[in-house]
Amino acid sequence: xxxSLLQPTHHDTYPFIDPSDQLAGSAKGKSVLITGAGLGIxxxxxxxxALAGPERLVLVGRREAGLRETRERIRGxxxxxxxxxxxxDGEVARDCDLDGGxxxxxxxxxxxxxxxxxLKGTYLVARRYIRALREYYGSTTAGNGHGRTEGKVEGRIIxxxxxxSWRYVPGRSSYAASKLAINSLTEYLDGEEGSDVVDSTxxxxxxxxxxxSVALHPGGVDTDLAATLPEDVRKRILIDKPELAAGxxxxxxxxxxxxxxxRFVNCTWDMEELEKQRERMESQxxxxxxxxDTVAILARIGPPLLHCGSVQQKSEETGGDNGxxxxxxAAYRMQxxxxxxxxxxxxxxxxxxxxxHSTPQQQ
Length: 363
What we know:
The chain is α/β, with parallel strands linked by helices. It folds into two domains: 15-284, NAD(P)-binding Rossmann-like Domain (Rossmann fold, 3-Layer(aba) Sandwich), CATH 3.40.50.720; 290-360, no CATH class. It has nine helices and 13 strands. α1 (40-51) packs parallel to α2 (64-74). The protein is globular, with a radius of gyration of 22 Å. Mean pLDDT is 74; it is low at 86-100, 139-147 and 294-363.
């Protein structure tokens, strides 16, 4: 992926997503729960939603002192601020392993911990949130609901992903795998819970809770998690303000951002410009993980890996063979951006897992 999907790119908040500017009052009547709200990006998100005027703001984290500090910073901006404190033991005190070694030299328990914290943690929070909405609002799929509403309640989950989910960084396999899995989990959750389910017998809705999901890269922010990175690396890539991710979260909570649900979004992209691409996003189903085959990539891979497929395709651009590919893989052409791909074995062919925005060349 190039440095951006759309120009301009941002490193700090801007009026279109600013909860004290164009998004002022946009969270009115909403209840917002924020995990990891005790410091860093989570704290910035809490402060942004406070400015957007929600009815209720709930702060959750593992560090009680940090939560109390966040609450004091935003007290008076909303009607009610609650905080929760989850006590973690020493085994989960570390958010993720930033060991720079490869898979073969890694410690299996430390390697797996990234998936336990990032992926399983994300799954458990999403699962409990969805079930709580079903139970409270009386969904027939939740068993004995309270029946608080005769209509539908809509919820939204913003998952924290990363550019590492599509960009190769040596020594970060566990972190990257966990974030790529979060992208996929987001797509599945939005597909499963983001639309109504109608009983074919009665014609009535089975579920009163409709929950949309989106995966967000919060930018390159210099947080405690990045403390082990070399100083020169931190200065080069950790150039984004936490307020940028915070404002983007407020924007993604709005109905106007529905077209981005189930997708990967980078907070450095300009959301106003992204809205102009809405029709293209929806019609071509962009910003999702795809299995693909690409002319240039196959050419670089070379002949040994070109014997796995079964279908010859002709390239209109080169006038020659596009490489041999399995009939289940589509050919894609990138427009206006670089290619960043992760090669994965997908028998009986070699495919490329790609989370870049892409345009189908052939269906």
